[in-house]
């Protein structure tokens, strides 16, 4: 895998397209399996709630049934999904890394929230093969995936490339609330090399999903640290936007 010590890496869109086509991941052009455009998806997602601080209950695939998304440790690296059944129960637990087809040597990090404020749950996904050393790897795949998502592989027909994997080796993703509006933002923990870690911010654009890297926003909300003492990541993101389940 190509690695670089450069802190700011501009990954050409053409190269990103080749990565998506050649790495064996389901691409953004795959259709949603069910429920796309169904008004019930908007209703169910807008009613998403927290079963506890690490468990979100809401409609992720747009079929009108509540699903259960669990995010142990708030890091986005161990996220699981249990699809809702007609009787209100939940099915088998699937890890996000398995659903998205991450390889054995790859790490997958995800964040779920209504990032574009359209009433549907979305996902930000990053897949990377860690360098295992001081030269950080860039992402094999980094996407913003507007909901609803395909329950087979979590793809979205409206997925777009995200620059979160261009600036370092993503280690964690967390939902955040940085600018006090009603739209979730994203915190990104990056290995940037030379023993350093950065927390970057991506601010949501109402109606337009997540924005790209912004120097002003990161000057205000970002933070640097070391591998031994990385910058703290938010752990209350979901509770900022979702109420406890009744």
TrEMBL record:
<dbReference type="InterPro" id="IPR013517">
    <property type="entry name" value="FG-GAP"/>
</dbReference>
<feature type="signal peptide">
    <location>
        <begin position="1"/>
        <end position="28"/>
    </location>
</feature>
<keyword id="KW-0732">Signal</keyword>
<dbReference type="Pfam" id="PF13517">
    <property type="entry name" value="FG-GAP_3"/>
</dbReference>
<protein>
    <submittedName>
        <fullName>VCBS repeat-containing protein</fullName>
    </submittedName>
</protein>
<dbReference type="InterPro" id="IPR028994">
    <property type="entry name" value="Integrin_alpha_N"/>
</dbReference>
């Amino acid at each position: 895998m190509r690695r670089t010590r450069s802190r700011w890496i501009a990954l050409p869109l053409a190269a990103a397209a080749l990565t998506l086509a050649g790495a064996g991941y389901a691409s953004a052009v795959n259709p949603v399996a069910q429920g796309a455009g169904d008004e019930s998806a908007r209703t169910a997602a807008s009613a998403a709630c927290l079963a506890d601080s690490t468990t979100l209950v809401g409609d992720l695939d747009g079929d009108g049934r509540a699903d259960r998304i669990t995010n142990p440790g708030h890091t986005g690296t161990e996220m699981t999904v249990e699809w809702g059944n007609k009787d209100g129960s939940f099915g088998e637990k699937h890890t996000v890394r398995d659903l998205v087809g991450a390889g054995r040597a790859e790490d997958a990090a995800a964040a779920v929230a209504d990032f574009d404020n359209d009433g549907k749950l979305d996902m930000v996904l990053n897949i990377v093969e860690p360098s295992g050393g001081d030269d950080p790897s860039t992402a094999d795949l980094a996407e913003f995936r507007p909901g609803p998502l395909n329950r087979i592989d979590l793809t979205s027909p409206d997925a777009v490339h995200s620059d979160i994997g261009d600036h370092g080796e993503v280690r964690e993703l967390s939902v955040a609330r940085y600018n006090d509006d009603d739209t979730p933002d994203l915190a990104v923990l990056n290995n940037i090399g030379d023993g350093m870690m950065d927390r970057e911010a991506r601010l949501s654009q109402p109606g337009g999903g997540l924005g790209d890297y912004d120097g002003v926003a990161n000057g205000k909300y970002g933070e640097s640290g070391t591998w031994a003492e990385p910058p703290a990541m938010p752990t209350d993101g979901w509770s900022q936007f979702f109420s406890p389940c009744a």
